Amino acid sequence: MGMQLLFFDDLIHLVSRKITENGKPVIPVNISECYKNSQELESQFSESLPKDKTVDPPLLFGKLFEGKPESFFSRKITQRK
C-alpha cells in the first residue's frame, strides 16, 4: 500500500491559484461527469474486446482500438468551449 504524499484538493487549490494569478480563468470540472456511461463504452468497444474464451481464456487481451481519446467522453463535454 502506498502512502499519499500530497492531498489532491491541496494540489488543485495551489495550481488553480497560480493559474488565476496569471490572468487565466479556472473552470473546475468533475471528470467522472465527463465520461460516457459504462453501457455506452461497452457497446462502443465491443468489437475491440471480443468475449471469446477459446482465443483469450481470461478475456484479458483485445484488439487495438484505433479511435481517438475523445471517444471516451460524452459529446456535450468535448464540444464545450
Tell me the strand percentage band.
under 5%
Helix and strand content put the structural class at mainly alpha
Largest sheet: none
Please give the share of residues in helix.
25-40%
How do you describe this structure in short?
The protein is an all-alpha fold. Helices cover 32% and strands 0% of the residues.
What does this structure look like?
The protein has 81 residues and is mainly alpha-helical. The chain has three helices and no strands. The chain has helices at 8-21, 38-45, 75-78. The termini are far apart.
How is the topology of this model organized?
Layout: H1 8-21, H2 38-45, H3 75-78
Protein traits:
81 residues; mainly alpha; 3 helices; 32% helix; 0% strand; elongated
